[in-house]
Amino acid sequence: MMGRSIATRVSQAGLGVIVRDISPERTDKVAELLGVDLDREIERWGLTQSEKRAILARIEFTTELPKTAGCDLLIETINEDYDAKRQLLLELDVVLEPGIPIIINTSTLSISELAQGLQHPERVLGMHFLYPVTTTRVVEVVKGQVTSDDAFETARRFVRILGKVPIQEFESPGFITTRVIMPLINEAAHVVMEGVASAGEVDLAIKLGYDFRYGPLEWADRTGLHRILNWLEHLFHETGETKFRPCPVIRKLVRAGHTGARVGKGFSPTTASVAGSTDSPTTPRSSLERSGSDHAARRRELTHESPRPQLWLFLGEVPGHRNLARDDRGQHRRHSCPRRRGEDRPVRLPPVAPRSRP
């Protein structure tokens, strides 16, 4: 998923991309899913058909690792597994020219530890792309202990070409974004586990209170609870701080296979709609989903977005009905008539709820 998103954004910037996978079946599947992603953007009016063709024309798929030897920069996007990334780096260190930077796409692993023992460890650095890469505006560029300045500046220029803001960082567990957001998600899960509020109410409080686009638990569902659990465990192991110790309810959901939007089950009551699935009225939901309220209805209730009658009060002398009329749209408006001395302006009262009939 991350590799497809990065390849799409790089191609949108006008650069040629070589996507390498381990088998022809995998490359065919990646190409198919990439086309599906672009079609989804076209349906949202985010792309045109001609832009889709141009993006696909700049992307080449292969299974041969030596074919990537002539590139100017390489980004690996395999799973967040130390042994797998280490093995891939050993292979790339032999195939690529010494001056080509190797970028590790990670959010928690140590760049210096992964680069240790390579022939050219100075060209290895880290980048943390936030998903979805096509819309997020920031990329964390992480410098290891032995990363050269040339490789680091090349990576920063590359990020600017993509139209994003590079955040310069030195190596630290979790970097900035993961280290800050993980305790928020973990504490939100504890609030749900303790019965303080449902997952839907927690998300709604954070979204409305702090103007977040997504609540912490909804964002966790979209990212994948198995990934959240993996990041929390790694940060807890690296730092020993209890704020990173995974909440038991996250473990419970992951063990049950409720890993978020991809499977249609997780914390947030909107997870099913995000995954594109619908529940029938007779289908029971999990206890966490059943306790959550509808976000849209709840938002209208709290922010008075539902249609309500408007009451206009005129103070002072009103000459008949001449100062009130209806315009072409059927809305009330005031005539621009001369004001008399001492006449007050109209006062608009706040919305009032309609009375229910007995």
Identify low-pLDDT runs: 273-293, 304-330, 332-339
Q: What value does the Rg take, in angstroms?
A: 27 Å
Count of DSSP E strands?
11
pLDDT averaged residue by residue: 81
Structural class by sheet pairing and helices:
alpha/beta
Structural summary, described in words:
By secondary structure, this protein is of the alpha/beta class. The chain is globular and about 75 Å long. The chain has a five-stranded mixed sheet, with helices on both faces. Strands 1-2 form a two-stranded parallel ribbon.
Please specify the SSE layout and strand pairing:
Elements: H1 2-12, E1 17-20, H2 24-43, H3 49-57, E2 59-62, E3 74-76, H4 82-95, E4 102-105, H5 111-115, E5 124-129, E6 138-143, H6 149-161, E7 165-170, H7 177-193, H8 199-210, H9 216-223, H10 225-239, H11 248-255, H12 271-274, H13 287-291, H14 295-303, E8 312-313, E9 325-326, E10 332-333, E11 347-348
Parallel strand pairs: 1-2, 3-4, 4-5, 6-7
Antiparallel strand pairs: 5-6, 8-11, 9-10
Briefly characterize the structure.
The protein contains 14 helices and 11 strands. By secondary structure, it is an alpha/beta fold.
Provide the descriptors you would attach to this structure in a database record.
358 residues; alpha/beta; two-stranded parallel ribbon; 11% strand; globular
